[in-house]
Amino acid sequence: MNKKEVERLAELYFNNTISLLGESKYHSHTPYLVVEFSPQSEGIDDEWHGEYDAEENEIIIYSKNITSKSDLAKTIVHEYAHYLQDPKWMTRYYTLGHSYKTHPYEREAFKIEELNWYKICK
Q1: Which of 6, 28, 72, 81 is least surrounded, with the fewest CB atoms within 10 Å of its CB?
Q2: Measured between alpha carbons, how far is 103 from 98 in angstroms, rounded to an integer?
Q3: What is the DSSP secondary structure assignment for residue 60, as one 8-state letter?
Q4: What CATH number is given to the structural domain containing 21?
């Protein structure tokens, strides 16, 4: 996908996700969507497709790691799920010893992603 197509689809999928999943009770406004196109973002693993930054209330998509429309949709839904979750508990679960694979919020985000990604592609 070229840059314009990624930007267009990301905006479409993001708006569809907001409509489908609603607003967070933990934030005063919807998150900002940032699509990162730089070839090497500092500190970003080649496996990362995106992240949600609760302090900045923004979803960041790492387009260099996105390989398909479904990857893009899944990433947006997954990161939006984190926006819906309590940011204090996101940190707390890690301090309680959970890894990425065992973290309850990550597991929940993957479930939300799998159940909803195809709906936002319509």
Answers
A1: 28
A2: 5
A3: E
A4: 3.30.2010
Q: Which residues span the domain enclosing 59?
A: 3-120
Cβ contact 67:8 at 8 Å = no
CA distance linking residue 16 with residue 117, whole number of Å: 10
| Alpha-carbon 20 to chain mean position | 14
**What is the model's pTM?**
0.91
Query: Who contacts 20 (Cβ-Cβ below 8 Å, separation ≥6)?
Result: 116, 119, 120
Count structural domains, the chain: 1
Torsion sign (Cα): 83, 86, 92, 94: negative
Q: What percent of the chain has pLDDT over 90?
A: 74
